[in-house]
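Quick sanity check, Nucleolar protein 10:
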Amino acid sequence: MEVSVNDNVKIYNLSKGDSIPEWVSSKRRRKLEKQHVGFRRSIRLIQDFEFPDVATTISLTPNGRYIIAAGVYKPMLRCFDVNELSLKFEHGLDAHALKVLPISEDYSKTIVLEEDRFMEIYSNGYRYYRFRLPKFNRDMAFCREASDLFVK
């Protein structure tokens, strides 16, 4: 990446520098990234990492491989694979998501807290269960040691 300064404005050239060919296997790619300083310092962008209007919540899975995000208009849930730099799956939601919480090491178990007092549980990217909460909530947290979900 090359940085130039014009009139106190930094300009970043993301396409400058060496790149690894797409046909190289992932094992060989990792080896090249370790050996070559230019590859280690390069910036790689995730394809389709956007929402039409706004992303309301973004969560990283505990293993650091997936990013799960929810956005509005139309309400949707998207999962991005950080290693493959691509969109893993996308689902439409019935209401805007307040919070997305991955409860497994990867994206296989995810809970979505929605604005309209509903909570959805996703398993392997598909909606497994949906239920209504007795009152409006704003946040949630998961205790892995006791397998408890706290909703407030």
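Posting the structure with no commentary besides this: The chain has two helices and twelve strands.
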